[in-house]
Design goal:
Elements: E1 10-17, H1 22-27, H2 40-55, E2 61-64, H3 68-71, H4 73-81, E3 85-88, H5 101-117, E4 124-125, H6 136-143, E5 147-148, E6 152-153, E7 156-158, E8 161-163, H7 181-188, H8 196-213, E9 215-222, H9 226-229, H10 231-243, E10 247-249, H11 252-261, E11 271-272
Parallel strand pairs: 1-2, 1-9, 1-10, 2-3, 4-5, 5-8
Antiparallel strand pairs: 6-11, 7-8
Length: about 280
């Protein structure tokens, strides 16, 4: 069994994906005449979330699109100033696995340069869609990233890059997206959409299991879905995580450095998942 700091049985990364309208632009979902730079996730949801995390002394990883360096530079600076990690989520939420290796490299270079222009750094990538695609980890290694968080399970390392996968069963969007009905059926026995209450109960049970059995997990919440989840449920989940003493709760970059410093303890520990939210 992998060893974690402080004698913890398991490691948990709390992560939040997407910011602003980048993903909506990529999907062509913005209406004609939409005003950029005023998205509710940046103007309302993020400040409230940062307060809630601060009150519980929790550090999270925010996987955000590079476009936000242009639309919401102050929001990115506020995330970092609050002690959280910024991770890369492609430039405009492009489906990473569908990009050529060359396009992945260009996308990474553009994003890293834009973050550095704000005196911000990114250590890892969560590929939109969950798949690494043609470039694999080699593209990330060449770009100087320390880890990636694709779909899969089990923390590990490959060619000097830490692998910190997320499981679809730990993602809020799995509750509602039609292509992920098979995941819901494995979770609950039914392909029907899950209610926020059911999802929180599921996550709380998964946290208990992780603290008991050990391993690694990443909870993935989307800023645009926090209204769906509801403030009371979010607070209950954050309280649960903050109170759990059997887990090392840390940003992805910290977990990645722990894994990379002990490669023998994480060898062949990762399996990737080809499931996609796009069907």
């Amino acid at each position: 069994m992998a060893e974690w700091p402080g004698g913890a049985r398991g490691a948990l990364c709390l992560s939040f994906d997407n910011l602003g309208e980048a993903a909506e632009i990529e999907l062509g979902a913005l209406g004609a005449g939409a005003v950029l730079g005023e998205h509710f996730t940046a103007t309302r949801v993020l400040p409230e979330l940062l307060d809630a995390l601060r009150e519980r002394d929790l550090s999270a990883t925010f996987f955000v699109e590079g476009l936000n360096t242009e639309l919401y530079p102050d929001a990115l600076t506020a995330i970092a100033a609050a002690g959280h990690e910024l991770g890369y989520h492609a430039w405009q939420h492009e489906q990473w696995g569908e990009l050529s290796a060359a396009d992945q490299a260009d996308n990474l270079a553009r994003g890293i340069e834009a973050f550095e222009a704000l005196d911000l750094t990114v250590a890892g990538l969560r590929p939109p869609g969950g798949q690494l695609g043609p470039g694999g980890v080699e593209i990330l290694r060449r770009a100087g990233l320390r880890y990636c968080s694709p779909a899969g399970k089990g923390a590990g390392a490959e060619d000097g890059v830490a692998l910190l996968p997320f499981r679809w069963r730990h993602v809020d969007a799995t509750c509602v997206l039609p292509p992920l009905a098979p995941v819901r059926e494995r979770m609950t026995g039914s392909p029907d959409p899950l209610t926020p209450d059911t999802f929180v109960v599921h996550l709380e049970a998964e946290i208990d299991r992780l603290a008991s059995e050990g391993g690694f997990a990443s909870i993935v919440l989307h800023l645009f879905m926090l209204d769906w989840l509801g403030k009371d449920r979010l607070i209950a989940l954050l309280d649960k995580i903050a109170a759990e003493r059997g887990l090392w709760v840390a940003p992805c970059a910290a977990v990645a450095e722990h894994v990379l410093a002990r490669p023998e303890g994480f060898r062949d520990a990762t399996s990737l998942d080809s499931t996609s939210w796009t069907g």
